[in-house]
Amino acid sequence: MLLKKQEMTKLWIDGKHVPVTLLKLVPQEVIGHRTNEKDGYTAIIVGSEKKEFDRKKGEKVKYSNVFEFRVCEDVLSNFGIGSVLDFSFLDGFDTVFLKGLTKGKGFQGVIKRHGFSRGPSSHGSHFHRRPGSIGGMKPRRVNKGKKLPGHMGVSNISLKNVKIINKYSFDNESLVAVKGSVPGYYGSLVKMELK
């Protein structure tokens, strides 16, 4: 299921403030299947945000986003081609798996990127936010995986066992509140799976 990240807020639950992220359901439908006989695994192909097309020119239906979701072979028959996905299939589930793309931070140094400690600020020190030594005499090269400055963010993150707090429906919009933060910026796509 595809969702769009909205904003974070907090809910009062059992006398405590619980931070939650609101995710909005994107209009989506099943546009294909993967089967064991043909592909070696079972999955449904979901398309969202259908684009307009010209029937006179013979253009095919196009979708802005197309994703695959692995499902059991027994469940595959429940999702026919053209069926619309909604929050009804979340009934009976307390936790979900979420996948998203983190915010881009650009080029960052080792303090922000890897959490290095900084050097002294005074007494003539020239070592403030630099990484320090990056290798010894042997081997005479920089080892692979050395933590150095570079591009930060825009990486795929998976969250396991994220708790569903509540579901809301109003003004033809469906929202789900999940506990904690979710990777991505406002309006970014988040993939929800049941495991």
List the helices and strands and how they pair.
Layout: E1 2-13, E2 16-25, E3 28-34, H1 36-39, E4 43-51, E5 62-70, H2 73-76, E6 95-101, E7 104-108, H3 110-114, E8 150-153, E9 156-170, E10 173-179, E11 189-193
Antiparallel strand pairs: 1-2, 1-11, 2-10, 3-4, 4-5, 6-9, 6-11, 7-8, 9-10
Structure at a glance:
Keywords: Ribonucleoprotein, Ribosomal protein, RNA-binding, rRNA-binding. With 195 residues, this protein is mainly beta.
Describe the structure.
There is one protein chain. The protein has 195 residues and is mostly beta strands. It folds into 2 domains: 2-105 and 156-193, Elongation Factor Tu (Ef-tu), domain 3 (Beta Barrel), CATH 2.40.30; 106-153, no CATH class. The protein has 3 helices and 11 strands; from the N terminus they run βββαββαββαββββ. It has a 6-stranded antiparallel beta barrel with strand order 1-2-10-9-6-11. Strand 1 and strand 2 (16-25) form a beta hairpin. It is extended. 12% of the residues are buried.
Tell me the number of strands.
11
What top-tier CATH class of the largest domain fits best? Mainly Beta
Mean pLDDT: 87
Shape type: extended
Query: Taking Cα atoms only, what radius of gyration do you get, to the nearest Å?
Result: 23 Å
pLDDT below 50 for ≥5 consecutive residues: which ranges? Answer: none
**CATH level-3 fold name of the largest domain:** Elongation Factor Tu (Ef-tu), domain 3
How much helical structure, as a percent, in the residues?
under 10%
Total count of helical runs of at least 4 residues = 3
End-to-end C-alpha gap: 13 Å
Widest beta sheet: strand line-up: 1-2-10-9-6-11
Number of domains: 2
